[in-house]
TrEMBL record:
Family: Belongs to the universal ribosomal protein uL29 family.
Name under which the protein is recorded: Large ribosomal subunit protein uL29
InterPro entries given in the database record: Ribosomal_protein_uL29 (IPR050063), Ribosomal_uL29 (IPR001854), Ribosomal_uL29_CS (IPR018254), Ribosomal_uL29_sf (IPR036049)
Keywords of the record: Ribonucleoprotein, Ribosomal protein
Superkingdom per UniProt: Bacteria
Matching CDD domains: Ribosomal_L29_HIP (cd00427)
Organism: Streptosporangium longisporum
Length: 78
């Protein structure tokens, strides 16, 4: 999963892409927790970053569900 996903970047993604990114982030979080439990984790800060990415994805999905933010498709000229 890409590091440093912002809410603005996530808002332009379609629902299927968000679900995919959420699944990838949850898998990464599982792997990081497993590494932490076995003492193999090198970057504890990554745990926090992945949890925040998951929260951002959930926030964007919830905004769409409540119709707080609409999805704007960029038109391609040419």
């Amino acid at each position: 999963m890409a590091k440093g996903l912002t809410a603005g970047e996530l808002r332009v993604e379609d629902q299927d892409t968000l679900v995919t990114k959420l699944k990838e982030a949850k898998e990464e979080l599982f792997n990081l927790r497993f590494q932490a439990a076995t003492g193999q984790l090198e970057s504890h800060g990554r745990l926090r970053a992945v949890r925040r990415e998951i929260a951002r994805i959930y926030t964007v999905m919830r905004e769409r569900e409540l119709k707080i933010v609409t999805v704007e498709k960029e038109s391609i000229d040419g």
